[in-house]
Design a protein that fits this description.
Blueprint (H helix, E strand, L loop, with lengths): L1 E12 L14 E20 L2 E22 L2 E27 L2 E16 L4 H7 L9 E16 L4 E12 L3 H5 L1 E2 L5 E4 L7 E13 L3 E21 L7 E23 L3 E14 L13 E9 L3 E10 L17 E12 L2 E8 L29 E8 L2
Parallel strand pairs: 9-12
Antiparallel strand pairs: 1-2, 2-3, 3-4, 4-5, 5-6, 6-7, 7-10, 8-9, 10-11, 11-12, 12-13, 13-14, 14-15, 15-16, 16-17, 17-18
């Protein structure tokens, strides 16, 4: 049995941006308040030579944003996330069995039902939505069934092969359904209350190899996303203004991962990883936006009972698969170096480190501009960063 609760109250403004007035007073601010709470109950039974695990979970997510903008001598206030509450109830089960000694099979099934209500959406706000979405309502319902089938085969004590098929459902979130930043000029940001859940269908194939001093793993995957929830633009013809919104489109993703861990002589340990994803928007024919480029890391660690030190290289390739309709631009590749040292004494650990040792200037693949809050420039990642930490286990 598990229960959880989380709450955030975050006041944001543009005091430090060029759009602010010369006096440094904000011209726009958003008071964002959100809460998430829920519970989960699960149990496992021995059944038919295997183990059946089943449960029920549910949560409620509340989100209310109030945005104020200075307009001439006055101030305009609007519910940019109009007090939306999403309630989800899920039922799930998983069964694992070893029909033959080297083979393990797992199968899972999950059903979700969600109800979303925008309490601050009145007829006046619906009237602003309906030029874009005539069927807009202040509430939405969605449901979906997901499942997976996994097979793992132990070829030997060192080598293991695995394969899997899965279907997953992602329900639209409050921002995608009811974001409402309407503008009388320029570009509005409009949620889509008619969105359908995204259905992912994925196949995985991989292998793991383990020895006393070496561990290797490799995997590849392919996925088809039906009704993928995607940021897009609306033609202003017949609408008050142009708008950024969300639409259901179809997409394809393919990729893979490589990983290695090795215990070397002289108390040295090597870790390395490489990952790549390629996404394609099948509806528009453009590359899928917000897809990371080829990324990798290599770390060498010296570790004895009372002391450890580590150096790591992180790198990303140039991302030139971009969606120009969302103003994505090519992101150059980059490389950073991190250092970390620590001292251990009984249950206590003192840790110190430097991220981005050589103060490299770089931007990530997601640092492009987005209407309607675009700054017109890419925002770089932090430079050299020093940190110290202390921990104690008891």
């Amino acid at each position: 049995v598990q229960a959880f609760w989380d709450s955030v109250d975050h006041l944001m403004d543009n005091s430090y941006r060029q759009a602010a007035s010369a006096s440094g007073q904000p011209t726009m601010s958003t008071d964002a308040r959100a809460a998430l709470y829920g519970a989960k109950v699960s149990h496992a039974w021995a059944l038919g030579g295997g183990v059946l695990k089943a449960g029920i979970d549910g949560y409620a997510r509340q989100w209310n944003n109030v945005t104020s903008m200075k307009m001439g001598m006055g101030t305009s206030t609007a519910s940019s996330i109009p007090d939306v509450t999403l309630r989800d109830l899920g039922l799930y089960g998983e069964y694992a069995i070893k029909p033959l000694a080297p083979l393990t099979l797992k199968a899972g099934l999950r059903y979700d039902y969600a109800n979303t209500v925008a309490a601050a959406v009145n007829e006046a706000l619906l009237a602003q939505f309906r030029p874009y979405y005539p069927a807009a309502k202040a509430s939405a319902e969605a449901s979906g069934v997901g499942g997976n089938l996994q097979a793992t085969y132990a070829v030997s004590d060192q080598l293991e092969l695995f394969a899997g098929l899965a279907r997953a459902v992602r329900l639209p979130d409050p921002q995608e359904l009811y974001q409402s930043t309407f503008s009388t000029m320029g570009t509005s940001w409009v949620g889509n209350p008619t969105l359908r859940p995204t259905k992912f269908h994925q196949a995985d194939l991989g292998a793991r190899y383990r020895m006393d001093w070496l561990s290797l793993n490799a995997s590849v995957f392919g996925a088809y996303a039906q009704d993928y929830i995607y940021l897009t633009s609306l033609d202003p013809t017949g609408m008050p203004t142009a708008a950024r919104t969300y639409a259901n489109q179809d997409a394809q993703l393919m990729g893979g991962e490589l990983g290695a861990e090795a215990a070397l002589p002289m108390n040295l340990f090597l870790n390395a990883g490489l990952g790549y994803v390629q996404g394609q928007n099948l509806t528009s024919g453009n590359p899928l936006a917000e897809t990371p480029p080829l990324k990798g890391t290599v770390a060498l660690r010296y570790d004895v009972d009372t002391f450890f030190a580590e150096v790591a290289e992180n790198a990303a390739a140039t991302q030139n698969r971009i969606d120009p309709t969302l103003q994505e631009i090519v992101t150059p590749g980059w490389m950073t170096t991190d250092l970390k040292v620590g001292v251990k004494w009984n249950q206590a650990t003192l840790l110190a480190g430097i991220n981005n040792l050589f103060d490299a200037y770089y931007t990530t693949d997601l640092a492009y501009r987005r209407d309607p809050f675009s700054s017109g420039v890419q925002v770089p990642e932090p430079g050299r960063n020093l940190y110290v930490g202390v921990s104690y286990r008891f």
